[in-house]
Design brief:
With about 650 residues, the chain is of the alpha/beta class. About 45% of the residues lie in helices and about 20% in strands. The chain has 18 helices and 22 strands.
Length: about 650
C-alpha cells in the first residue's frame, strides 16, 4: 500500500507557547517498500508514526493511503482503518502478560470475525513463520526479548494487514535477535507489505529501501531505492462478524477476571453481603405469606369474625346477637354462633380434687361447641386434638379439656397420667353461674371425651351446645354469651364487616385471618425496611466494583492503548471491562444465593424448633426474588461500569501506549 504525506504540521501548546513538532513534512512511500525513519529523541519520529497510523488525527496536512485520505476520517473510522490495514510492532512489545503466546497473537482476529479452526490455523501459521510455534501455549512473561518481539510481529501480521509500522523493533534486542527481526520484516516487503520502521539503530539502513532523517520536525537527506513486489493484499472487510468480535472480547474479559481471581473473589464476597440481605428479605416475606395462606386453607385458623362487648356495656345478650346479625346482613352470613359459657371452680377426678386456685390455663372456662358440627375451627383439627375423636356429633355428651389441665393435674398429684388415659374418665365439676341476681354454684358429673393440645395456643374447655344449654336450663341459671362468632360467605369481606361492626363503639370485632393479614402487612413493612438497609450495602458494593474496575483500567492503560492501536474501538474495549464487572457481580450473586439458602434453612429449623405449629417454611426463595436480584445485579454492573468506561472513552491511545 502506497503512503503519501503532504504538508504535515503538528504542534503542541505548552503553557502559553506553541511548540512545533512537525513542520511541512512531505513523504512518499511505495507499496512493498521498507522505509526507515531516523532521528534524535524529541525530533518528531513518534508523532509522525502516530499520524501515519491514524492514532493521531490532530494535525494539519494530508495523509493518503492508496488514494484514500485519512485526514477527514473520524476516530471510529480510523479504528476501522487500522483494523484492516495496519499492523503495529512496538519497542516494548506490549504483549498482554496474562495471556499465552497463542492468545496474544489471536487478539486481532477477534476484530475481523475469524474464529474456531480457521483462527487456530492462522495463528499457528504466523507463529511458524516467526519461529515461535513451539512456544504457542507458553506465557509471554517466560519469553526472552527477541522471542517477545517475534510474537509481537506475528500479532501484527495475523489479520493480514498491508502496512506494518514498527516503533524501535530492535531497540531492546541483542544482535542475533535483531538480525532475525529485521530479516522477518524485510521478507514481508517481498509479499507486498509496506514496512515503516522508526528507529535509532543504524544497522536498519542495510535492510531499508528508503531512509529518512527527521530532525527538528523536518525531513532531511532522503534516499530511495525501488523494489519489485509480488502483490498488495487487503483484508476483506465483509468478513467481519459482530457476534464473533463480541465473543472474542468476552473471552478476553474472562481471562482478565481469572488473572485477578483472588482480588475479584474478595470483592464479590463483600458485594454479596448486600445482595444476601435483599434475598433474605424477599424470601422471608414469601415464606411467611405462604405459611399464612397454608394455615388459613388448612382450617387451623378460623376465618370467622369474633365479636365481643366492651366491659362497661355488660355481657352480650340475645338482643346484641340480633343487632349484629342485622348490621352484617343475613345474606352475607354463612353461619352465626353465640356460644354459652360457664366457669369451673373445681374438678374432681379419680377421687382427687383440683381447686380453681391451682388452674393455670384458659381451661377453667367451659365454652359450648358449635351447633353445626361441620364448622371448621382451630380447636377441632387433627393437629390440635391430642386424644379422643374430632367433634362431629352435636348431641355429644362429655367434657373437652386441655393438656394444660393434665399437666396441672399430674403436678398436683405427682402422677404421670398420659392424655389417652383420660379419655372416658368420670369427672365431677363444680360450676359457677348466675340466676340473674346472685352467683350460683352447682356440681355436675360427666366424662372426658377429648384432650386439646394448648402448648402453642390457649384453648378453653368445652361441651356440646345442647349439653351446656340443658345444664343452664335445668339449674335455672342465666345464659352467659362470652362472644359471637360470624363466618361470612366471603371471608375477603372480614375486614370491611369488622370495621362496620366496630362503628358502634360498644362492640369489638376481629378475626384471626384479619390478624394474620396485619401480620402479613407488618412483615411487608419489615421486609421493605430490610431491603432498604440492604440496598445501602449494595450501593457500597457498586462503588467497590466500580473502584476495582477503575483500578484495573489504570493498571491496563498500556494494554488499552495496544488494543486501540490494533483497531479496537473504545466501545469494544468497554465490553471487556463491563463483562469483568458482570463476572464479579454474578459471582457475588452465586455466593449470595448459597448464603441466603443456608441462612434461610437454618432459620426455618430454628423457628420450627420453637413453634411446632409452624410447619411451612418461614423463609422461602421465589422465582420473583431470583429474577429481581438478577436484574439488580445487571443494574449494579451498569452503574459500576460508568466511571471506568468513561475513563476508557477519554483515554488518548498515544498517551496510553506511553503509560508506565
Amino acid at each position: 500500500m502506497s503512503i503519501t504525506l503532504k504538508n504535515i504540521y503538528k504542534s503542541f501548546k505548552v503553557d502559553k507557547n506553541i511548540e512545533h513538532v512537525l513542520k511541512q513534512v512531505d513523504l512518499s512511500i511505495a507499496s512493498g517498500e521498507m522505509a526507515a525513519i531516523f532521528g534524535p529523541s524529541g525530533g518528531g519520529k513518534s508523532s509522525l508514526m502516530n499520524i501515519i497510523s491514524g492514532l493521531d488525527y490532530d494535525y494539519e496536512g494530508e495523509v493518503i493511503f492508496n488514494g484514500e485520505k485519512l485526514t477527514d476520517k473520524k476516530a471510529k473510522q480510523l479504528s476501522d482503518f487500522r483494523k484492516k490495514h495496519i499492523g503495529f510492532v512496538f519497542q516494548n512489545f506490549n504483549l498482554i502478560n496474562h495471556m499465552d503466546v497463542f492468545d496474544n497473537v489471536k487478539i486481532p482476529l477477534s476484530l475481523i470475525g475469524v474464529r474456531g479452526k480457521e483462527a487456530e490455523n492462522r495463528v499457528n501459521k504466523m507463529l511458524e513463520q516467526v519461529g515461535m510455534l513451539d512456544y504457542a501455549h507458553k506465557n509471554v512473561t517466560q519469553l526472552s526479548g527477541g522471542q517477545k518481539q517475534r510474537v509481537a510481529i506475528a500479532r501484527a501480521l495475523v489479520n493480514n494487514p498491508n502496512t506494518i509500522i514498527a516503533d524501535e523493533p530492535t531497540g531492546s534486542l541483542d544482535s542475533q535477535s535483531q538480525e532475525i527481526i529485521l530479516n522477518i520484516l524485510k521478507q514481508l516487503t517481498k509479499k507486498g507489505k509496506t514496512v515503516i520502521i522508526v528507529t535509532h539503530n543504524p544497522e536498519v539502513r542495510d535492510y531499508a529501501d528508503s531512509v529518512y532523517n527527521l530532525r527538528d520536525g523536518q525531513l532531511e537527506n532522503e534516499i530511495i531505492s525501488q523494489q519489485q513486489v509480488e502483490n498488495d493484499t487487503v483484508v476483506d472487510s465483509d468478513r467481519i462478524k459482530f457476534k464473533t468480535v463480541k465473543l472474542g472480547l468476552i473471552k478476553m474479559a474472562v481471562a482478565n477476571f481469572r488473572q485477578r481471581l483472588g482480588r475479584n473473589i474478595v470483592v464479590a464476597f463483600a458485594t454479596a453481603i448486600g445482595v444476601t440481605g435483599i434475598l433474605l428479605s424477599l424470601g422471608l416475606g414469601v415464606g411467611i405469606t405462604h405459611w399464612i395462606n397454608k394455615t388459613v386453607d388448612s382450617g387451623n385458623v378460623q376465618t370467622a369474625i369474633q365479636v365481643t362487648k366492651e366491659n362497661k356495656y355488660g355481657n352480650i345478650t340475645q338482643q346484641d346477637v340480633t343487632t349484629i346479625e342485622k348490621k352484617v346482613g343475613k345474606s352475607k352470613i354463612k353461619y352465626l354462633e353465640a356460644p354459652l359459657a360457664l366457669m369451673m371452680s373445681e374438678i374432681e377426678l379419680d377421687g382427687h380434687k383440683i381447686s380453681g386456685e391451682k388452674f393455670s390455663g384458659a381451661y377453667a372456662n367451659i365454652v359450648s361447641l358449635p351447633k353445626d358440627s361441620k364448622i371448621k375451627y382451630s380447636s377441632n383439627t387433627k393437629e390440635t386434638v391430642k386424644s379422643g375423636k374430632l367433634y362431629t356429633d352435636v348431641n355429644e355428651k362429655g367434657l373437652t379439656v386441655t393438656t394444660s389441665f393434665l399437666k396441672d393435674y399430674n403436678k398436683e398429684l405427682a402422677t404421670k397420667i398420659k392424655a389417652k388415659e383420660l379419655i372416658g374418665k368420670k369427672v365431677t365439676l363444680t360450676l359457677l353461674g348466675s340466676d340473674g341476681d346472685n352467683e350460683k354454684t352447682i356440681n355436675y358429673q360427666t366424662e372426658i371425651v377429648r384432650i386439646l393440645d394448648d402448648s402453642n395456643q390457649e384453648h378453653n374447655s368445652a361441651m356440646s351446645s345442647q349439653q351446656m344449654s340443658k345444664i343452664i336450663t335445668d339449674n335455672h341459671m342465666t345464659k352467659i354469651i362470652p362472644y359471637i362468632i360470624i363466618d361470612l360467605k366471603n371471608p375477603k369481606e372480614n375486614n370491611q364487616i369488622s370495621t362496620k361492626i366496630q362503628s358502634e363503639e360498644k362492640y369489638i370485632a376481629f378475626s384471626q385471618t384479619g390478624i394474620l393479614e396485619i401480620i402479613g402487612k407488618f412483615v411487608q413493612i419489615i421486609r421493605g425496611l430490610l431491603v432498604f438497609m440492604s440496598s445501602q450495602a449494595v450501593v457500597v458494593a457498586i462503588i467497590m466494583i466500580s473502584v476495582m474496575i477503575y483500578i484495573s483500567v489504570i493498571e491496563r492503560t498500556r494494554e488499552i492503548g495496544v488494543l486501540e492501536a490494533i483497531g479496537f474501538k473504545p466501545n469494544a474495549i468497554n465490553i471487556i471491562f463491563f463483562v469483568e464487572a458482570l463476572l464479579i457481580a454474578m459471582t457475588s450473586l452465586f455466593i449470595s444465593i448459597i448464603l441466603s439458602t443456608v441462612i434461610g434453612m437454618i432459620g426455618n429449623v430454628v423457628v420450627r424448633s420453637y413453634s411446632h405449629d409452624i410447619t411451612a417454611k418461614v423463609y422461602q426463595t421465589s422465582l420473583f426474588s431470583l429474577v429481581a436480584v438478577v436484574g439488580l445485579v445487571i443494574v449494579m454492573t451498569l452503574l459500576a461500569s460508568l466511571a471506568p468506561t468513561r475513563k476508557i472513552a477519554k483515554l488518548n491511545p498515544i498517551e496510553a501506549l506511553r503509560y508506565e
